[in-house]
Amino acid sequence: MFDLQENLLSWVIFLPIAGIGILLALEAAGRIFMSRRLSDRSWRVAGMGFALGNFGLSLMVWQRFDPIDGGLQLVERSAWIPDLGIQYYVGVDGISLFLVVMTGFLLPVTLLASWTDIASRVKQYVFFMLCLQTGMMGAFLSMNLFLFYLFWELMLIPMYFIIGIWGGPRRLYATLKFFIYTMAGSLLMLVGLLVIYYLNAQQFGFLNFDYIGYGGASGIIDTLIPTAGAPWWQTQFWLFLVFGLAFAVKVPMFPFHTWLPDAHVEAPTPGSAILAGVLLKFGTYGFIRFAMPLFPEAAVELSGLVFGLGVAGIIYGALVAMIQQDIKKLVAYSSVSHLGFVMIGLFAMNLQGLEGALLQMVNHGISTGALFILIGMIYERRHVREISEFGGLAKVMPVFATFFLIATFSSIGLPMLNGFVGEFLILLGTFAAAPWVAVLATTGVILSAVYMLWMYRRVFFGPLTNEANRGLLDLSAREKIVAVALTLPMFWIGIYPASFLRPMDAAVSELMRTMEQRGADIASHNGGQSALASLPAETPGRVSWLREPDASAEAAE
Amino acid sequence: MESTNELLRWIPLLPLVAAVASGLWLLFLRSPMPRGGVILIGCGAPIASFLLSIQQVFALTRAVPEKRFIVDRLYTWIGADPFHAELSFLLDPLSAVMILVVTGVGSLIHLYSVGYMDGDHREDRGFQRFFCYMNLFTFSMLVLVLGDNLAVLFVGWEGVGLCSYLLIGFWFLDDHNAACGQKAFIVNRIGDFGFLLGIFLIFWAFWDAGHPTIQFLSMSQNIAALEGRTLALPAWLSFLPAFPVWSLLTVAGLCFFLGACGKSAQLPLHVWLPDAMAGPTPVSALIHAATMVTAGVYMVARLSFLYSLTPVALSTIAWVGGLTALFAGTIALCQNDIKKVLAYSTVSQLGFMFLAAGAMAYSAAVFHVVTHAFFKALLFLGAGSVILGMHHEQDISKMGGLSKRMPWTRATFLVGVLAISGVAPLSGFFSKDQILLGAHVANHVPGQTWLWLISVVTVAITALYMFRLYFRVFSGENRAPAQIRSGIREQGNWVVGPLVVLALLSVIGGVFGMPDIYGELFFGIPDSNSLLHFLEPVAKSVAYDISHLREFLLALLALSVAGLGILVAGILYYFRSDLLAPMTARLEPLYRLVLNKFWVDELYDRAIVRPTLWVADRVLFRRIDVGLIDDVAVNGTARLVRAVADRGLKYAQSGFTQSYVFLMLLGSAVLLGYLVAGR
After folding, report:
1. Given a cut of 60, is residue A557 above it in pLDDT?
2. What DSSP string runs through B228-243?
3. Across the interface, which of B26, B197, B613 has its CB nearest the CB of A442?
4. Are A258 and B228 a contacting pair at CB < 8 A?
5. Contact A280/A252 with Cβ under 8 angstroms?
6. Would you say the ipTM is above 0.95?
C-alpha cells in the first residue's frame, strides 16, 4: 500500500498532508513530553522538505509517464463506498501531467519566496499551504467524480484562510467574495453532476461515479446525454451551462472575473502566486476534462458564446489592465486576458488549439506566478504596490529588474520564452476554426505589450525620484534562487517545447476522438447529424474559409 | 538537393554565446568584467561570425546557381500535427548577402562602440551591458535572416525588436529614452499582428492545398497551388472593395507587409523610428539604419515567390514605399537634430527599397539595403563622432565649421553624403539608379508614372537635405558656446578606423550590383550585375527590356536631379544663406507643418492613445467593471440576499418560544392533514 512504485500518485497527493500529520504529532509530542514547542523555523524547513519531496515525486510521475499512451496511466483504484459507486480512483494522462508537475514546482518555490515575508503564524501558514497542495494534486488526479468534488472543495478552505489571515486590509471582504463566488458555482456543478450520475445509473444499471471506466467497465464518460427529447434539465445544453458556469467562475471568464482582482490584491504573495498559478487552472482544466468531452454537442453549439466571452476577456482584460494603478491588480487583469486565450484555444477543438491551451495553462502558471512572487519581493521592501511609488528601480536593483524583465516578456509572449509557444498554437488553431475570433484575439498581442511595458517603464525606468527607493537592496541569494528557478522553465518551454508538447499529443488526440465518438453516438441516437462534423479533421481540404479557384471565378462573374 | 552544414548554426550562435556569457556575469558576479574582456568577447564574437560567414558564403558559391542552398537543421521547435516549425537555418544567396552585411557592418559598429561608449560613465556596468545587448541583437538579426521558415524568421523578428527596445532605452534613467523604447516595441507589435495573421493564413491555406508547410523552400515550390484561391468572407463585409473575391495571396501578402511596415517604419507606422534616436548612436547606426529596419525589405524579398503572384499587394508596397520616401524626405528637410535628419532619411531610403520591391526589382531593393547599410552606417557613425566632439550636442543650429577640427570625420561624412545623394560613381548611384529604373518599367502598378515622378523628386530632396546637413555641420562658422567650441577635436582610432572602412565601402560598394550596361561599356565585362544574377534563384526580379539609350538618359536624369538638389542646398546653406530666413518666413505655415512632422504623433495621440485610455479607465473600468459587474451584479446579488433576510426571513427567527411552538403545531397539522388526505 505504501509502495512508491505502485502508489506513486497517492504519494504525490498525500505526502503534503502526511507531512502535516508528522509535524503536528511532533508538535504534540514535544508539548506533552518535553513541554517545548517546535520552532517556526523547523516548521518552515520541514514544510519546505515536504514540498520539495512532493515536487520530486511529481517529476517522477513525468519520468514514468509514457508519452505514446493517450489513456490514463499510473492508475490506482480501490473500493471506498462501492454501493454508491464511490471509489478511490486516481490516474494521470497527458492533460493533467504538466499541471501536476507545475503544481509540484510552484509550492517549494512559493515557500522559499515567502521565507521572511510571512512572519506571523508560521505554523498555520505551513499547515494551510501543505493542505492546499493535497487538495490541488487530488483534484487534478482524481478520476472518480465524488473524489474529485471532495478535493475540489477541499482546496477552497486553505485558500480562504491564507487570504483571510495573511492578506491586506480588505482581506475579509476579498476572501469571502472569493469563497462564496466559487462555492456558488461549485454547488451548481454538484447538481449537474448528480443528474449525470442518475442518467448513468439509469443507462448502465448500477451506481457509478468513476469518470473514465476502469478496466473496460463503463464510466460517467460513457453516459449518453441527450440533446433533445428529455426533460430540459437532462439535456447537454443545460448541463453544459451548469458545469460551464462553475468553471467559468474559476477561470475566471469575463464577466465572472471581479472576484479575482480583489482576491489578488488582498492575498499575500504566496496566496496570489498559487491562486493565479494553479487554482485558476481548475476552471480551464474543468472545461477540457469534463465539460467538453461530456457534452460535446453543447460545447460545439455554444462555442460561439465561449469564443465571444473569451475574446471579450482578452481585449477587455488588457484594456482594464492598462490603466491600473496597483501592480497586483494589473497582473490580475492580465490573467483575465491570458485565460481568455486559453478558453478560445480549447474551443477551437483542434490539436493546435488544445495543445496550445494546455501549454498556456502551464505557462500562465509559471509566468504569472513569477510576476506575483517578484512583486512580492518589492512589496516586502517597500510595503506599497502603487506603480507611481516606484520609478528608476533598474538603477538600484539591476538583478531584480532583469528577472522582472524576463517575466514581463514571458507574459507578453516573446518567442524563445514560454508564453509565445502557447499563444501561437492557440491562435493558429483558432484561426482554422474561427478566423475572425483569431483576428480579434491577436490584437491581444499588441495590448499585452502596451500594459506590461508601460508598467515596466514606470516601475523600473525613469529617474529615481522617490527617496524611499534610493536605498533598496538588490536580490538576496535566497531570492536569486527563487528567481532563477522561475526563469528556467520559461526558457525551457520557450526553446524546447517538445518536452511538453509530445506527452500531450496522444491524450489530446484521444480527447478529440472521444468527443467525435460521443457526437456520433448522439447523432445515431437522434437519427440526425452531429454538430461535430464541423470539427476540422485531419484530412486536408477542410478549411471552411477558403474557396477553390473555380468557385471564385464564378463569384467574380 | 540541398547540402547540410553544421557550421552554419555557429554564425548566429557565437554572438549568442557571448551575450549569454556576459549577461550571466552581470547577473551573478559582483563586479563587471574588465574592459579588455568585454572588448574581446563583445567584438570578437561578431568578427568571428563574420569570418565564418565568409567561409560559408564561399562554400555556397561553389555550387551551381540552382543548388545554392545550405541547410542546418537543429530540431523541431513547435510541433502539433500538421504544424511543424523546425528550428533550422538556411543559407541561400539572399541570406548570404544579408549575413555578410549584418556581421561585416555589425563588426565595424561594434569596434566603433568601444570608442563611443568608453567615455560614458553613467553606470559602472554600462559598458558590459551595452555589448551584451549588441551581441544579443546580432544573434537575433542573424536568426532573422538565416531562418529557413516563417516561425524562425519571426523569432529573429521579435528578438531584434526586444534588443531595439533595450538599446533605445539604454540610458533608462531618462524617462524620455524609456518611453521611446516602449513606443518602438509597441508600434512594432502592431506590425507583428499582421505578420502573425499572415503566418496563420498561409499555413492553413497550404494545409488546405495538401502541403502543410511554412518553410520557404517548399512554400516557393508549392505556391502555385494557392493561386486563384479566395477567402470566403462573411456577408457583413460586403461594403468593402472587391467583395467577395479577396484573393488569398493578396490578403496574406498585405498581412506580411503590415509586419514589414512596422519593422521598417513605413507609413503609417513610421513614428517610432525618429524617436528611436534616443538610443546611443552606434545603436542608431546598427539597428535603426543598417540592419534591423531593413528586415521588412528582406522579408518581402524572401517572400517574393508570393508577392510576384499578387499585383495588388505589390502595388500597395510600391505606393506605400514611394509615398513614405517623399513624406519622410520632406520632413528631413526641416529637422535640426542631426540624428533626426538621418532618421527621417533612413525612413525615406527604406521607402525607396519598398518601392523597388513593389516594382518587382527585388535585387535592386536588396542592393540598396547593402549600399544603404554602408553609407547610412557611415553617416550615423560620423554623426556620433560629431556628437562626441560637441559634447553630446545634437542640434545642428549650434554646429558649423567642424571641417577644420574634425578632418577625418568631415571627409568620410562627405563621402557618405555624396553616396546617399546618388552621385556617380559612388555606391548609392548604382542602387538608386536601378530603383528608378524599376519604378519606370513597373507596368503592374497603377499610376506608375506618378510613382516614378515621386521617386525622382525624392532623389532631389535627398540631395538637398543631406547637403543642408553637411553644410550646417561642417562649413561656415561654429555657432556653439565658447567652452564647447574649444574642446572640439577628432576622436581616437576606435572611432575613425570604422569610419574610413565604411567610407571605402560606400565608394566601391556599387561594384557588386553594377547594372550590366556600365560593366559592358566601361570595363567590357558581360553580366556585371553579379548581385542580380546571384539573387535570381531566390528572388527573381522582373526582366525589363528597354534600350540602352533610354537607360542612360534615365540615369542622367537622376544624376542631374541630384545635382539640382545639391545646387539648391549650396545656394541656401553655403553661398547665400541670407536667402533662407525670408523664405521660411514667407512659407511659415508650411514650414511649421513640416517642422512638426505633419503632426502625425499628435494625431495618433489624440485619435488613438487618449481615447483608448479614456474608454479603458472611465467606461470599461469604472462604469462596467466596478460599477455594473461588481457593484450591481455581484455585490447587488449579495445585497439582495441580505435584504431578503433582513426584511423578511429574520422575523421568523424571533426568539419567542410561543411562536416557535405555534409554528411547529401548525406544521404538524398540515403534514398530518396531507397524510390523512393522501390515504
Report:
1. no
2. T-EE---GGGTTSTTT
3. B197
4. no
5. yes
6. no
